[in-house]
Amino acid sequence: MSAEQAATVSESPTATVDGKERRREVPRSAHGEWEPPADRNPIATLAAQDKTRVRDLVPIRYGRMLSSAFAFFRGGAAVMAADLAPGPDTGLRAQLCGDAHLSNFGVFSAPDRRLVFDCNDFDETLPGPFEWDVKRLVASIAIAGRERGFGRGDRRRALESTGAAYRESMRQFAEMRNLDVWYARIDVDAMEERLRSSLKASRQRDMERNLAKARAKDSVRAMRKLTTTNREGKLRIVAEPPLITPLADLAEGVETEGALRPLLDDYTSTLSDDRRRLVTDFEYVDAARKVVGVGSVGTRAWIILMLGHDEADPLFLQAKEARESVLEPYLGKSEYENHGQRVVEGQRLMQAASDIFLGWVEAKGLDEQSRCFYVRQLWDGKGSVDVERMSAQELGMYGQLCARTLARAHARSGDRVAIASYLGRGDAFDRAMAEFAERYADQNEADYNTLLEAEKFGEIEVERGL
């Protein structure tokens, strides 16, 4: 950004009122502070979520969360939401991811079939203070850096560079036309070319191998891995309980296909006409419950196999339960009655390019309880980085990439000029983010140890290795 452009951001009438003036009420340095409230109880927060989850799967959730402090952080979005609520609030709103940690960014295929890099998890999306997402991102970097054994200096550099990348990107977006912001995206081919000069030869090969794997990850590959032919010669989803449980096994003796067809019709009604036509060219074959992620374990997630002309023409969809965002107790109810729609609309607003099959539905379960779901392709060029293999330099580079992506997502829905003006040209915000991240990483370690103690004393049931 040129000096003239930077001056324009600072002198914008909107920025003067809504951005720069906000620094007097909420100094940027204030974001570096963290003090846990006296009545804080992270275990109770997690336990409250368990009440509406599949009871038999909750021990798997805790087993996955207890695999590391970083895994605990991944599963603890509700804990951090409660922690952020009483903190400083800029009042500058944007559509939030709600769970913007390192592992919730990655690559996937855009509708034009090119790989793009973007946020890829929106279960908790809701409008809110832009800084909440940034704080979750930098905290994840601090925690990941500790897991990798990086020293405080290396972590500090990664954290400050991530804060700077968000701030500088937002200032760049503040100078762009609305349409240019809307069309901006990170194409993986261009990103790969830029990264080559920064990576060692062995890491370049790792990157190329991972991207090739992502490009091959589609419904055809899912069918090869997740299906089998039964004795009657019919194609069925494999049973690997408790992680994959076919619907027929859960609803033994109950005819399910007839019940599912109206639900598929309801889902397709949320798509545009052209995409609805595409889905109707596929026929339902089978469905199964599949355990996914860390924080999502115990919520209902289904995979649905559909076929087009023949078995060489599959479509695998995922229907994932959407519950109240962990942000809603602090930021207010969603404007959407169906939380599946909340997730879909938030994703469409934040992502540069979204899955063409993205839709939502409300459905009754086998227990006759009505629940909201959002629907998307199961695999569509999806891939993520292996945080556990990153060097300190790579962690910083990846943090910057995620921060630029997050700034672009926020710039689409928030007042990017006001946010840019608040952030300013100096490094006050960057330093505050680094300070907050380290303090919150301390808190996360303490919470992780508290959960280990809960397991030790039998207060929670844990099933590891799944």
| Largest β-sheet summary | 6 strands, antiparallel
End-to-end gap? 48 Å
Low-confidence stretches: 1-17
Assembly state (oligomeric) = single chain
Helix content: 40-55%
Rg, Cα atoms, Å: 22 Å
Helix-and-strand structural type? alpha+beta
Walk across the major sheet and give the strand order: 8-9-10-11-13-12
Number of strands: 13
Q: What value does the average pLDDT take?
A: 92
Walkthrough of the structure:
- By secondary structure, the chain is α+β, with helices and mostly antiparallel strands.
- It folds into 2 domains: 3-214 and 387-456, no CATH class; 219-377, no CATH class.
- 49% of the residues lie in helices and 14% in strands.
- The protein is built from 21 helices and 13 strands.
- It has helices at residues 3-11, 13-20, 22-25, 42-50, 58-65, 69-75, 77-84, 130-147, 152-174, 178-183, 188-196, 201-215, 219-226, 247-250, 257-268, 273-279, 328-331, 339-350, 392-413, 416-423, 428-456; strands spanning 93-96, 105-109, 115-119, 126-129, 186-187, 227-229, 235-237, 244-246, 283-290, 301-307, 314-321, 359-364, 370-377.
- The protein has a 6-stranded antiparallel sheet, with helices on both faces.
- A hairpin with a 5-residue loop joins strand 6 (227-229) and strand 7 (235-237).
- The protein is globular, with a radius of gyration of 22 Å.
- The relative contact order is 0.22.
- Mean pLDDT is 92; it is low at 1-17.
